[in-house]
Fold this protein.
Amino acid sequence: MSGAPASTVERAVADAHRREWAFVLAATARVARDLDVAEECVQDAYLAALDAWTRDGVPRKPGAWLTTTAKRKALDALRREQTLQAKLPLLVEPDETDPDDDPDGDVVPDDRLRLIFTCCHPALAREAQVALTLRLVCGVATGDIAHAFLVSETTMAARITRAKKKISGARIAYRVPEPSELPERLDAVLTVIHLLYTTGHTAPSGARLVRGDLVERALDLARMLRVLMPDEPEVGGLLALLLVTDARRLSRTDDDGRLVLLQDQDRSTWDRAAIDEGQRLVVAALRAGRPGRFVLQAAIAALHAVAPSYAETDWPQVLALYDALLAVWPSPVVALNRAAAVSMARGPDAALDEVEALERDGRLSGYRYLPAIKADLLRRLGRDAEAAEGYRAAIALAENEAEREFLLGRLADVEFGDPGSS
C-alpha cells in the first residue's frame, strides 16, 4: 500500500474521529477494563494513524485499523502493569477478519451499548452519568455538553473526571446489566441518546446548524436499544421522537445554510416514511398507557409532522400534550417550549406572561432560547424596541453561526422595519 498526502490523511483521521470514535472506544474499553486507559489508548491510536497512514496509505477500513491499534495499546498497558488476565489476548486478533475489529460487525454495537450502560451506573449522579456517556461514547465536546447543562466548561470537565475516577475506584463492571438491572439505568440511557441527538440536530457551536454524524449515531443507538428492549414504551417513544424530528432535516436550512423556521419549511421535502414509522411507534406506546416524557414528546412532534401547515397544527392538542409532559417532567425547558405553544393557542400576550415568569425563576439564565422566544413574542405584539433588546441578548448567547445569522436578521427587522415580517 502506497502512502498518502498529509492533507488526505488529516481529513481521513478527522472523518474517522467523527464516525468511528464510539466504536473504537467501546471495543477498547472491553479490553482495558478502565475508561481512562481506554480513552488514552484510543487517542494514541488516532495519533499513530497520522504517521502510519501517511506512510502506508489510508486503510480500507479505518475504524478496524484504529480499533486493532487501540486494543493492542490497551493490552500493552495491561502487560506493563502486570494485570493482564490469561484470556485477554483472545479479545484481539491482528488480522482484519476478527469481527471485533470491524465496525460494521455485530459485536461492536453491543460494545457501545455496554459502555453506555457502564457509564449510566446508578452509583454515579444522574448528570455525571449523562455527561460521561456523551463525552466518551458519543465524542461530544466538553464545551457542548456544558451548554446542554447550562454550566461552565471547567465545571463540566471536573464532573466528567470525577465520574471516570469513581467508575475505576468502585470497579464498576464493564457489561450490559442483567434484565433486572435495566429499569434503574434506562432513563439515563434514553437521556444520553436524546441529548446526543439534540446536540447534532442543532449544534451548540460551529458553522453548521446540523451535525449529521451525531444525529446518525443517536438514531443508530436508539434502534439498537429498541432491539434490546422492544416492549419498553419509552424506548419506542424515543425512537419515534428522533425519527419524526429528523424527517425535517433537509428543510431546516436553505441552500446557503441559513436557518428556516418550522413555519416556513417546505413540507414536501419531509421524509414521510420516517414520519409514518414514528407515528406507528407513538400509537403503540400511547396504547401501553401512562406515557412518559419521550412518548409525549414524540406525540407532540408527530402532531407537527402531520399538520398540513404550521397554522393548521392542532395547537390545543399540542398544548394539552405539553401540560401532560410538564406533569411528568417539570423542566423549565419544557415550560418554555409550552409557552411557545401557548402563543399559538391563546396568543402572544398569554405566552409572554409565562416567559417572564421563567425569567424571574432564574433556572434558564444563560439559555439562549429564553431571550429569543421572548423577543419573538414582543415582535408579534409590535413592541419592537423591547424585541430588539431580547434579540441582542440571544445573539450574545448564541455560538452556532446559523442561529446567530438568523437572530441578526430578526434584529434588523425590528430595528429597521420589515413590511413582510409577522
Notes: The beta strands are 205-206, 399-400. The domain at 343-422 is CATH 1.25.40 (Serine Threonine Protein Phosphatase 5, Tetratricopeptide repeat). The two ends are 61 Å apart (CA to CA). Residues 380 and 422 are 6 Å apart (CA to CA).
